[in-house]
Amino acid sequence: MSLRPGTVFLADCPARLAIEIIASKWAVVTLFALSDGPLRHGELVELIGGVSRKVLTQTLRRLQSHGLVERQVYAEAPPRVEYSLTELGSTLREPITMLTAWARSNGEAIAAFHETAETEDS
Can you give the pTM of this predicted structure? Predict the structure, then answer.
């Protein structure tokens, strides 16, 4: 794969579409939350924290529409619905785990830089 200008991330490039789908903060967090197995909507809201039920529903639908997440409805009373990664979604486990490890290692440095930049702008 070449990263030369004009060869990747063009408007009609599948790589660009894939990046746009997972670039949302909630998409990556949701995919990471599902990496250990199926979860119900309420469990995801609690595990993720800070996401509204509406935004999570929109995120799950978007991930479903691109084949990364599947929704399983169980014929129970009351109905039980679980979300899980598809086979394609599971291929994102390793990259998201690596990105999460990087964020844990560098999050404080980014926050410190951000604080310094805000102080200088004041």
Answer: 0.80
Query: Which residues of the chain form beta strands (DSSP E)?
Result: 69-74, 80-85
CATH fold for the domain made of 14-121: Arc Repressor Mutant, subunit A (1.10.10)
The phi, psi pair for 42, rounded to 5°, reads -60, -35
pLDDT above 60 (res 5): no
What tokens does 15 get?
């790589």
Length of the chain: 122
Question: How far apart are alpha carbons 57 and 41 in whole angstroms?
Answer: 8
The structure tokens listed for 41 are 């909507």
Q: 100 is written with which tokens?
A: 């999460």
